[in-house]
């Protein structure tokens, strides 16, 4: 699965691409699309690394998926709760809908 697209959907997109772009221009179009995706990936990696540097210590493991506000808060709370709890303490239950 690539980008959440299954094999049937991928085949359907390929047929649409051949229909709309045309078989003679499809190789160049595919090459240009691959170059564009590579640039977007590099841009995202650069932005993530700059964000890590600007946020400072404690954010070395930051991933783009962590930028979702719910995921970010859950991760930070989990780290805080793990550091403060005694070994025999009961782990508090946090309702994920409240985050």
Characterize the structure shown.
There is one protein chain. By secondary structure, the chain is an all-alpha fold. The protein is about 60% helix and about 0% strand.
Compact summary:
The chain is mainly α and 99 residues long.
Could you outline the blueprint of secondary structure elements for this entry?
Layout: H1 7-21, H2 26-55, H3 69-84
Keyphrases for this structure?
single chain, mainly alpha, 2 domains, 0% strand
Please, how many domains?
A: 2
Ranges with pLDDT <50 over ≥5 residues? none
SS elements, strand count:
0
The largest pleated sheet is described as: none
